[in-house]
Amino acid sequence: MTREPATTDLRGAAVWITAFASLGVVAVLAWALAVGLSRSRPVGDGRDPATYGFDLAGLRGEPGLATSGHPRDFLPSLDRPSTIAGAEVAEYNRTHRRRPVVSADRVVGVTIAGESRAYPLPLLESHEVVNDELGGVPIAVSFSPLADGAVVFRRDVGGRVREFALSGLLLDASHLLYDRPVPDLAEGGASPSLWSPLRGRAVSGPETDASLDLVAGVSLATWSDWLAAHPETTVAVGDEASRLRGRQINYARYLESPGVGRPVRGVARDEDAPKEPVLMLRDAGGAWRVLDLAALRRAADPGGWTEVSEPKARLMISRDARGYLLEDVEVVAVPCLRFAAEAAVMAPAMPAPGAAAITP
């Protein structure tokens, strides 16, 4: 007689437990669905440039247009990075597992209004573009690994300070950036412009052919050489995720191998793409010279220093000829691989026809 109510109670409890469990499962599924729906899908399928959401009218007929194989923003831009003093790097490295830069690392070195900063290549490889401010000037530091090309330019373009990000598209195996939408362009439904740092201009979109103001005096040197020349420098650092990603990315085998793996203007067969490191120097008239860094190294004095006459510049070339320290901060210099330099020089509007000189 006393067991029946107990059995009924147990059955009732089981029903309630099952109901609550079911509600819990439904809640978890609903949460998962909401999270999944809230996440924006990647833009760009890795194969067709038309899926990346950009106006490509300015790139019609471009033989070097391709995708990187990744969607838009597959690497996040690094915006206003934290810094540490160069003089403190050795102690920082001694006390931290993740080292922002070591002596042999190449860095993109920039000096503006007496303020110097180094951007280590492992950091740049994990973002490919840094939106920063140096000497009171808003700048973008871009590095395209397939072209081994570093370009620093001002972010105040057309009266607006922009932030640049990775489009996921390539032009002559060099990355294209896009500017994050600004209100007056977005209101009309226009897509962002696509910018080629190596060509120094917008190549498609609402601002096609608008120029980028390249920063002069950029070096691509080892950290030890840059620090010796600029003891007051700071170093840009990322978070732990970007540091870890940067140390996992390594283009050494690519740089030593034949071929690029992407179409390039003027290159009929991929394996014939010239990949020796060069330096593009812009003279006062806007013309570009393309100089072989290995040849400059061979002509250098025992300390690695050499001089060029037009534009006049004094450089210290690294032993492996993959970097240089530019002493004259008034000269616009762009380091990259030869195929990228020749493609940029051959491209329309960069520079004016007949203004370029290719030197062996």
Mind explaining what this structure looks like?
- The protein is an alpha+beta fold.
- It folds into 2 domains: 9-39; 49-273, no CATH class.
- Helix content is 24%, strand content 29%.
- It is built from 9 helices and 23 strands.
- The chain has helices at residues 3-38, 89-95, 121-125, 183-186, 223-229, 240-248, 252-256, 293-298, 338-346, and strands spanning 65-67, 78-79, 82-85, 106-112, 115-120, 129-134, 137-144, 149-154, 156-157, 160-161, 164-171, 174-179, 194-196, 201-204, 219-222, 234-237, 277-282, 288-292, 305-308, 313-317, 324-326, 332-337, 357-358.
- The strands form 6 sheets. A 5-stranded antiparallel beta sheet has the order 1-11-12-13-14, with no helix packed on it. A 5-stranded mixed beta sheet has the order 3-16-5-4-15.
- A hairpin with a 4-residue loop joins strand 7 and strand 8.
- The longest helix is centred in the N-terminal third of the chain and has 36 residues, at 3-38.
- It is globular and about 50 Å long.
- Mean pLDDT is 85; it is low at 1-39 and 350-360.
Summarize this, please?
It contains nine helices and 23 strands. It has helices at about 5-40, 90-95, 120-125, 185, 225-230, 240-250, 250-255, 295-300, 340-345, and strands at about 65, 80, 80-85, 105-110, 115-120, 130-135, 135-145, 150-155, 155, 160, 165-170, 175-180, 195, 200-205, 220, 235, 275-280, 290, 305-310, 315, 325, 330-335, 355-360.
